[in-house]
Amino acid sequence: MGGEDAIHGGVRRRGLTFRRNDFFPEESFKSWENYARAIMDTPWRLKDRVLSRSEDHTEIVEMKARSSHEMKKTLNWWDLMWFGIGAVIGSGIFVLTGLEARTEVGPAVVLSYVVSGVSALFSVFCYTEFAVEIPVAGGSFAYLRVELGEFVAFIAAGNILLEYVVSGAAVARSWTSYFATLCGHHPDDFRIVVHKMNPDYGHLDPISIGVLIAITILAVYSTKGSSIFNFIATIFHLIVIAFIIIAGLTKANTENYTPFMPFGVRGVFKASAVLFFAYVGFDAVSTMAEETKNPARDIPIGLVGSMVITTFAYCSLAVTLCLMQSYTDIDPDAPYSVAFSAVGMDWAKYIVAFGALKGMTTVLLVSAVGQARYLTHIARTHMMPPWFAHVDEKTGTPVNATISMLAATAVIAFFTNLNILSNLLSISTLFIFMLVAVALLVRRYYSSGVTTKGNKVKLILCLVLILGSSCGISGYWAISDGWIGYAVFVPLWILGTGGLWLCVPQAKQPKLWGVPLVPWLPSLSIAINIFLLGSIDKDSFIRFGVWTGFLLVYYVLLGLHASYDTAKGFESQKSSVDVDKHWNKVEEGAKGEVPLTPVTTH
User: Which residues form a coiled coil (predicted)?
Assistant: First the structure.
């Protein structure tokens, strides 16, 4: 047991401990001399681990075995669909519709939701195949570890965590705005304005911290009835949405739809990049695969069904808002409540505000559960300290991961403006969805020992063409209103995708459920996600680059060595188990005079 405990790095220890071995139990961190040797070996360790790919069996069996208990398979497609709707609706429509309609796109915000919804649907298809084939709690982190290797998975994992922290902060700040409206105040009245600070960071929000503390307590101590709570809250949410549409359309004024596209086509796509935030949440449903009774049937119906319903609801709500009020008058903080006040239905704003608060509370709770599950799975690999993987024996929840993630969320929510949060979040989301689509193409067209060297070279060339042409289309869109760039890059995208389709045989077919129209649909998902990335402002990319740079430094100094030691420890343990099994067979065979055969360890 001693060796196992060392490898698990304290995952099964009880209580909230803060000893060094709870964070860095690996051999490289036992002493400063060991760490110095590890740093000196960094180039060799990078070579060993950067492109190291996990296996389906490792993620499905061995990684799950590192948890104290198996997750119960209690969910079906109905649960997943409601979980998806509950996780998504509320974080987008009640937060960003007003902001983008007023400043970026006008009444054509409905088209922005369609573009984002189609892009998200393509990503849903990619996630669904992975979730069916690799039904584990790690979600996209596990998928990328299997197909693109440890390093890409780690960078994606860091951005997944950033996505959850930023989305929680954005929703918590909007919660404050709607609470102020419910109390009869201006949406910004309950914030503390520090005039000497940058306006993007000087509107301090103490209420958001209180909300996140309450959510933390719920996430840590009250998960038993989470499915029932989510179902009831989502039903209530849909009733509020139906009320907004019906009551709002009774006050519709078609003149508010003129001009329909005041900021042009560019505004539609620029807004769609930010409104992609409205669809964040469906990826959390993929982490429920480990608890699904029949993944091959339930996950496709649940994920695709929730996405279609969500997109329809978003488009209907966007149309209603812009028919009720001119886009120039829409309030960016609490658009629906203020819109009802403007058309003489002041009482209705309280229903809207209360429904929005209920929806946002559900989104925060689901997000808290999902992000803790992600961090726990990442910590099991030791890319993050295994302290975060601790599951409390009494509550059965990842207490350390939950509290840590929500503490980071609270700090950002306290200071940061919603506009900065939404743009930064969309970069992380689009980046991860693009990587998952690339991973799907790699999964279908490359298999070690099956794909020939020639086909491997063709695959790499096609992927370079797809990614390069997609970046070219996105970059040209950002800097020019012409058409010459599209005449160059679109044919290159078709060449890359068509070349993959015609010249590279698929090395692996999905066993249970597969994305249709491969490679066209995943390639289109890559192109759309990269295209939407080109519509995001420069400052957000700078912040994204700083965060990714921090992840690189962390990986080289800490994550790499922890992962290397853990991998070698498990390889050694596995070899020892194999040897023991072999000699047991030898001993049994000796009784029957079976000749001995040599054994080698690796």
Answer: none
Q: How many CB atoms are closer than 10 A to CB 592?
A: 6
Judge contact between 284 and 127, C-beta under 8 A.
no
Q: Which of 47-51, 60-64, 369-373, 493-497 has the lowest mean pLDDT?
A: 60-64
Residue 290 DSSP one-character state: G
What would the two tokens of residue 598 be? 């040599």
| Residue 109 identity (one-letter amino acid) | V
**CATH H superfamily, domain 72-445:** Amino acid/polyamine transporter I (1.20.1740.10)
Q: 489: helix, coil or strand?
A: helix
The domain spans of the chain are 72-445
User: With 0-12 CB in 10 A as exposed, 13-18 as middle and 19+ as buried, what is 555?
Assistant: buried
Q: What is the pLDDT of residue 129?
A: 92
Q: Which helix (H) or strand (E) holds 193?
A: strand 192-193
Strand (E) or helix (H) holding 216: helix 206-221
Cβ neighbors of 585 (< 8 A, separation 6 or more) are none
Say if CB 122 and CB 441 are below 8 A apart: no
Q: Tell me, what DSSP letter sits at residue 596?
A: P
Q: What percent of the chain has pLDDT over 90?
A: 22
353, 181 in Cβ contact below 8 A? yes
Q: What number of residues does the chain have?
A: 602
The predicted pLDDT at position 581 comes to 55
User: What is the distance between the alpha carbons of residues 76 and 225, in angstroms, rounded to a whole number?
Assistant: 16
Contact 374, 399 (CB under 8 A): no
Tokens of 587: 């001993």
What are the phi and psi torsion angles at 192 (to 5°)?
-95, 120
Show the tokens assigned to 143.
């998928």
287 vs 136: CA distance, rounded Å: 6
**3-state class (DSSP) for residue 204:** strand
Nearest to 172 by CA among 477, 460, 417, 457: 417
Q: Over the stretch 340-374, which tens digit does the pLDDT of each residue have? A: 888 888 888 788 878 878 888 878 887 887 788 78
Residue 491 pLDDT: 95
Closest by CA to 381, choosing from 59, 34, 14, 133, is 59
Q: Are 386 and 8 in contact (CB under 8 A)?
A: yes
Average pLDDT, the chain: 81
Asked if 324 and 248 touch (Cβ cutoff 8 Å), the reply is yes
If one counts every other C-beta atom within 10 angstroms of the C-beta of residue 543, the result is 16
